[in-house]
Amino acid sequence: MREKRTFRILFVDGPNLNVLGDREPSVYGRETPADIRGAVTEAARREGAKVAFFQSNHEGEIVERLQGAKRRFDGIVINPAAYTHTSVAVRDALIYAGLPSIEVHLTNPASREGFRKVSYVEDVVVGRICGVGGYGYTLALQALLHHLRREGARGRG
Ligand code: DQA
């Protein structure tokens, strides 16, 4: 029987996601970062995966965390928040990390203001999950694990 690998997944949140629950609840809902992390941690426990969480309001800190993820993690779930629409630096750091990644958004940026329709990371991620609130993070974990297991199975022929 094939041994089951424990995949390590890093969750990275961009600016203003620390005040989730309190921030424009009519847009982003009442769920807090702690609620989302709790649900993800529980899902990871069921899946036998290891998860770590990072949030920053500072672009450079996000860049450094993504750089540091190389060789330490197997995949990344990222909600770059406003930096989605502006940051070449976050995009470049994600490429440097070189890990399969899923982009998550609580809302569906495509149904909002025009400037949110641009994503600087959409073409360097495996896929995107948008518009289902905090549940999107759990879905992203499952999608990434599915991807890693499938790739692993392919790699071993
Ligand atoms: C967001 C969407 C972005 O446009 C916005 O700037 C955010 C949150 C989302 O999760 O829906 O901060 O990434």
What would you note in describing this structure?
- The model has no long low-confidence stretch (mean pLDDT 95).
- Helix 4 links the parallel strand 3 (75-79) and strand 4 (101-105).
- This protein has a 5-stranded parallel sheet, sandwiched between helices.
- By secondary structure, the chain is of the alpha/beta class.
- Helix 2 (33-47) packs parallel to helix 5 (135-155) and helix 3 packs parallel to helix 4.
- The protein has one domain (8-151): 3-Layer(aba) Sandwich (Rossmann fold).
- The longest helix has 21 residues, at 135-155.
- The chain has helices at 25-28, 33-47, 59-69, 88-97, 135-155; strands at residues 8-13, 50-55, 75-79, 101-105, 127-130.
- The chain is built from 5 helices and 5 strands; from the N terminus they run βααβαβαββα.
- It starts with 7 loop residues before the first strand and ends with a helix.
- Bound molecules: 1,3,4-trihydroxy-5-OXO-cyclohexanecarboxylic acid (DQA).
- 1,3,4-trihydroxy-5-OXO-cyclohexanecarboxylic acid binds at residues 16, 79, 81-82, 84, 105-107, 109, 116.
Write the layout of secondary structure elements.
Elements: E1 8-13, H1 25-28, H2 33-47, E2 50-55, H3 59-69, E3 75-79, H4 88-97, E4 101-105, E5 127-130, H5 135-155
The structure holds 1,3,4-trihydroxy-5-OXO-cyclohexanecarboxylic acid.
The overall average pLDDT, rounded, is 95
What is the CATH homology-level superfamily? Dehydroquinase, class II
The hetero compounds bound to this protein are: 1,3,4-trihydroxy-5-OXO-cyclohexanecarboxylic acid
| CATH architecture descriptor | 3-Layer(aba) Sandwich
Termini separation comes to 14 Å
How much of the sequence lies in strands comes to 15-25%
Structural class, please?
alpha/beta
**Strand order within the widest beta sheet:** 2-1-3-4-5
Radius of gyration over C-alpha positions, nearest whole angstrom: 15 Å
What's the structural domain tally? 1
